[in-house]
Write a structure and sequence with these properties.
The complex is a heterodimer of chains A (about 190) and B (about 575). Helix content of chain A is about 25%, strand content about 40%. Chain A has 4 helices and 10 strands, in the order βαββαββαββαβββ. Chain B folds into 3 domains: about 170 residues, Rossmann fold, CATH 3.40.50; about 160 residues, Rossmann fold (3-Layer(aba) Sandwich); about 180 residues, Rossmann fold. In chain B, α3 runs parallel beside α4, α15 packs across α16 and α15 packs across α22. The chains are: A alpha+beta (about 190), B alpha/beta (about 575). At the A-B interface, α1, α2, β4 and β10 of A face β6, α6, β9 and α10 of B.
Amino acid sequence: MNRKHILIALVQDRPGVLNRVASTLRRRNFNINSIAVGSIEVPNLSRMTIVVEGDDARVEQARKQLDRIVEVIRITDITHENPVAREMAMIKVKATPQTRSEIIQIVDIFRSNIVDVSPDSLIIVVTGDQEKVDTLVELLRGFGIRELSRTGTIALPRGGAGPLTIEENRPLRHVVEHVAPEEETLPNW
Amino acid sequence: MMKTGAEILCECLIKEGVEVIFGYPGGALLPLYDTLPKYPELRHILVRHEQGAAHAADAYARVTGKLGVCLATSGPGATNLVTGIANAYLDSVPVLAMTGQVNTYFIGKDAFQEIDITGITVPITKYNQLVLDTGDMADAVREACHVAQTGRPGPVLLDLPKDVLQNKTEFIFPEKLDLPGYKPKLFGHPAQIKKAAELINSAEKPVIIAGRGVNVSRAFDELRELAENSQIPVVTTFLGIGCFPESHILSYGWLGMHGMGYANKAVHSSDLIIAIGMRFDDRATGGTSTFAPNARIIHIDIDAAEIGKNLPADVPIVGDVKNILQVLNKQLNKREHIIWLSQLDEWRSMHPATEIREHENVLPQYIIRQIYEVTKGDAIICTDVGQHQMWAGQYFYYDKPNSFVSSGGLGTMGFGLPAAIGAKVGRPNETVWCLCGDGGFQMTVQELATMVQENLNIKIAVFNNGWLGMVRQWQELIYSKRYSATALYNPDFVKIAEAYGIQAMRVTRKLDVSHAIQRAMEHDGPFLIEFVVEPEENVYPFVPPGKIIVEFLEEPSPATIRKK
């Protein structure tokens, strides 16, 4: 069954990582709904939230292939863990003196904010799950949307330590010591 | 002490145990080529095309178990490596590819011979890195070498800008590396191993499918113990050839599209498949929905992403094959499987895939068998890709690990000749035979010069049938003999060899085959034999695409051939 999956990944902050992740998904023929990347509480690490559509087995296969990428430290599928998922959108909507008050009412109902007012337009910032953002966008479409920018989903699992929690007793460091190469030995058949 | 990037690179390579670099110089690499002579421990072999360098490094790694290293300049040099890197990626071979790059301040400006090779090779390397600072050089080399050779091996690439090679910095060898995202799982889960042992102990018709992972992990003795102790027949994959002695009584050939009929039957009829270091490639399984319908599958592989990719596993075990088999073997009972093994022996006599029919012309199968007879099987066979490759798998018997070098996953024509160079450099004391078709030989024929320059004693057999044989076979059997673009005009291969300074002869009669091979063996130096073979010979058994692996076509009997 095709459904939306939310994958969260902890990655090393190095050039090319996003390319590798996107390339792996493209190769498996996934359409990426959204991908959001940002730094986290630990230096030199980033967190990615990837939303893709596909059946469970295919997504799990892709997750394992993503886990193979050297710079990917951990990656988990939190779809089934009832995560808190949010996204943000900025919507520039046409507003005339006649429509402005109606738009403001809608903005209030959605507990979103107007962050810029111009003589003929407003910029609205909305935060919420994808459905809420979709609905607001639909409602505002009638007034004329001039520009729209969405962040894509970011998500956190509920409760205590999540799968990507970095704790002192779960060290991230994986130190590889230099070992001198050994000679090839073939079996004595 | 202050050292240049090129010096740091060389010293790190030496510390990693690198002895040989297959390479081709160019503008961006001048600082490195200027430095190389200072390090005589690093033997540089000048190839004639960068693809040859990548294939030679690949074969070197396969026969020695060490890291293969190739080197090419920026731009076209780097793109010429791509085929070879892809070849190593699909066959999981540890290769370090190093490419020159334009000066850092030119990067991104479409400078002369600039290409984004790290971008190009993202899908075909295990790891790659553009080194932007001389201070990062030592870490980059250490990381690349470590990643290439551990876990599931694979090619890695380092892109080295000219100024990074030239600039100086304080050199401190990094004894320790920090790779938080790279932790190959080495030991299998004990509960899974226990489950596997229970299945093996209760199976009535078990079969082992051993792949290249056994070679990589050097689990030869462990595999043998598993097979002998529980009397389980061993079928290998095409790349697994040689990981279990083929003359062993429990060896039942290799499976797949051109695999032995009895191997395919054994796998299809089994009730338990113990898949070791293999990945259920489509050429091995045929249609997956009909593959081994009654078998449960124990899948042992170091790469978690392989498990469940092509076929669901009943008992997945992720880890290093050798470690897992050591634990597993302790939990197994002695078994005999007399009925099952006698069934297999019956199939083996019903489908004698490796019998050669009488024929007045020179049959390629006959040549390969004669090479086996003359060398007594004590040789490393490097093949190109196509019909002769399949016959080389079928008609030569491999008793030693890593004695069969062939491009399996990518099926790269042109692999054979440079591979033979890599193999001979890696194991100079072994006899190396390079088997090529007339098509593939011409794809990398320039490497004959490398062979002569390095004085490599390689014996070459060119199978000249005047066709791109494997494609012609498919056109014959599946496209109603519409031969499109498969007939070859060929040069005089003997004269070509002689032009390079290699002794050569042509064989057109069956009775000269054995003598020619002996002459090649007695000659001290490279030797080429052009065999003019039966032109429209087909490879059998043949599982047509999409069919079950037991629905193989066998060689038509002589009576039906005459009717045709």
